[in-house]
Amino acid sequence: MAVLGNGMPNGESSSEFGTTQVPERASLLHFDAGERLIVPGEFALTDAAFSRQGHDLLLEDANGQRILIQEYFAHSEPPALATEGGVVLPPDLVRALAGPMAPGQYAQAGERWRRRSAR
Q1: How far apart are CA 118 and CA 95, in angstroms?
Q2: Among candidates 23, 31, 65, 35, which has minimal Cα distance to 48?
Q3: What pTM was estimated for this model as a whole?
């Protein structure tokens, strides 16, 4: 069951993964593993910006409303996000919209690899 609570400015929330800094004017959303998470009706999920905040997912719509889904990325199988109107975003799409865990970091081939590939 999803639980929605109002975040407080400069608030914090605790979980098994540590303390989460709740962004100002954000609602905090918790979920139980394996369920579809219904985002509140007034939130424009299909027009929202998705971003990673450690293990958490931060959603922000065009009106500036924010929802922090605590520990979303900490689960091997996070839930699909859905609107009350029936739009469903599967976890793989949510991951892609939120971007990489470490943006701007890339693997680099070492000198040893270059020598082998030149043969």
Answers
A1: 36
A2: 65
A3: 0.68
- DSSP for 70-81, written as a single string: TTGGGSSSPPPE
In this model, does residue 82 exceed pLDDT 70? yes
**Contact indicator for 81, 89 with CB cutoff of 8 Å:** yes
Kind plus residue range of the DSSP H or E element containing 67: strand 66-69
Burial of 11 per CB tally in 10 Å (0-12, 13-18, 19+): middle
Cα–Cα dist 51/56, whole Å: 9
Q: Which residues have a Cβ under 8 Å from the Cβ of 87 and sit 6 or more positions away?
A: 45, 46
